[in-house]
Each structure stands twice: as C-alpha cells, then as structure tokens.
Amino acid sequence: MRASLEDWNNGWTEVEVGLSSSDVDRLIALLQMIKVDPNQHFHATSNFVGAGGVGQITFQMQQADEANNLSLGDRAMGEGESVRR
C-alpha cells in the first residue's frame, strides 16, 4: 500500500492511495468489521520514511449527526470511453 499527497495549489489537497490485491481484501474485511461494530476503527499508517507525507489515515463509522463533506465517486473512465447514460 502506498499513499501520496498532491497539493492542488488552491487550498485543497488530494490523497492518493495505491492498493495491492491483498490490500483490497484486507480493506474490505476491515470495512466490514467497522460496519458490524461501529465502535471500532482502524488505521492505515505510514512507515515514516522520507521527509514527510501522509502519516496516518483513520477509518471509522460516521456519526449520525456529522455532516458529509466527501462523497464516493464512480469508476474512472478509460482512454476513449464516454459517459454511459
């Protein structure tokens, strides 16, 4: 698993996470775990090598009274593909 930050130079930052096949399986299992037990959480943690970057990402269930400020997108389009309607 790897993570990187991209400064968009407009006040916003992108966090990019690259996953191996086994990382995907582990992430799905951990997401299912917090869905079943909303009091749990888990982290993706850096190896802290290098000058800086993403130190840790915490995954937890959103509280009912917390407003959304992110949304999940859909599949990325490949080269030459168009939006299907």
Short structural summary:
The protein is of the alpha+beta class and 85 residues long. The chain is built from 1 helix and 4 strands, in the order ββαββ.
Q: How large is the share of residues in beta strands?
A: 25-35%
Q: What is the string of helix and strand elements?
A: EEHEE
Tally the helices: 1
Question: What are the segments in which pLDDT stays under 50 over at least 5 consecutive residues?
Answer: none
Query: For the largest beta sheet, what order do the strands appear in spatially?
Result: 1-2
What is the makeup of the main sheet? 2 strands, antiparallel
What radius of gyration results from the CA coordinates?
Answer: 16 Å
Mean pLDDT equals 94
Distance between the termini: 34 Å
Helix content bin? 10-25%
Number of strands: 4
> Which structural class do you get from the secondary structure elements?
alpha+beta
Detailed description of the structure:
Helix content is 19%, strand content 26%. It has one helix at residues 21-36; strands spanning 2-7, 13-18, 41-45, 56-60. The strands form two sheets. It has a two-stranded antiparallel ribbon with strand order 1-2. Strands 3-4 form a two-stranded antiparallel ribbon. It is of the alpha+beta class and 85 residues long. A hairpin with a 5-residue loop joins strand 1 and strand 2 (13-18).
